[in-house]
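Quick board copy: two proteins, each given as sequence then tokens.
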Amino acid sequence: MIAGRINVVPARQDDLDAIMNLERSGFEPAEQWSERSWQGELLGEGRTVLIARSHQPLGVIALQTVDHTADLHRLVVAPQHRRSRVATQLVQAGVEAVRHLGARSVILEVHWTNEPAIALYQRLGFEQLAARNDYYGPGQHALILKLWDLQVPVTLTEVEQ
């Protein structure tokens, strides 16, 4: 249970230590992203990294927007805060952020045995697009999911035209 309100805000460079703690608690060592990989997410062009906090960091999401498609690269929630809507709030905030950047769809890969994540994404409207055999290694398949047709926000200049 989470005491207090959850705030989802853009992650900054000084959040890297907290992100790495989430990464280490959220994934087995062989599956963890490196500090360098997370630096790339925080500093890379077209990247959106959001962190969920209450009294402490609860989770983080990383997306990259290229043209009209966003790729959800990573979603990590601290194990003790799973099943408490943190992931839902992170994905919803991430989708909203990339929508404002002009994304019209979001795509992601998820391990085919990660039933809680698959259920979350499906509840949020993602549909299975394909499967990739051996994506995470021999016998470690991925499902490709896509959220279609994000409504692009109308700007004042578009309304005036």
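And the next:
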Amino acid sequence: MEPKLEKHLNLLTERYPILEPCRDSIIDAYKIMETCYESDHKLLIAGNGGSAADSEHIAGELMKRFMTPRPISEEMAEKLKAIDPVRGENLARNLECGLMAIPLVAHEAMTTAYINDVDGLGVFAQQLFGFGRKGDVFLGISTSGNSQNVLSATVVARALGIRIIGLTGRDGGELARVADVAVRVPETETYRIQELHLPVYHCWCMMLEDHFFGGKE
């Protein structure tokens, strides 16, 4: 394992020793995301309730700086300033590089229309079908591993050639069986599972930022 990755994983398990059994699955899931972003693809994320909030949280950490500045390239900065010297100067100074991440829970008009007009359990599947391309990654978050709308999305993901990461609880449910990698945090109570999901995905975000933008030592 790369020293930088091991550093983040060691910090995670030092702070949360209960996650020690998840080390291999956490790094395997990270490697899937790294390959995705190396190929200029994207992460699509879905969950319900608290896991919906986690989906947006993850996207927020990936689409802008998490712990490390991510300045745009000099080439892009010069293009912006050439188009508009005033606004371009400000944008060149303030824009940040991102890793494309789409929370499928965030599109209220489209999702409520689909739920109302077509199928309540197929809404994530519909979004994945519209947004997803081969080489992307679907991160399904479900404390039980049996959320039907998340599982429907995994069927579309497999049909499109999209790899699947499951973030779930100890039992794993069906999600753990269909995912390419499942991180099954060792708790069974919903709120305790959610409490461990956050440090796991923060670790992923730090690893990705370190790899692509040069994180803090």
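Board note added afterward: The longest strand covers residues 163-168.
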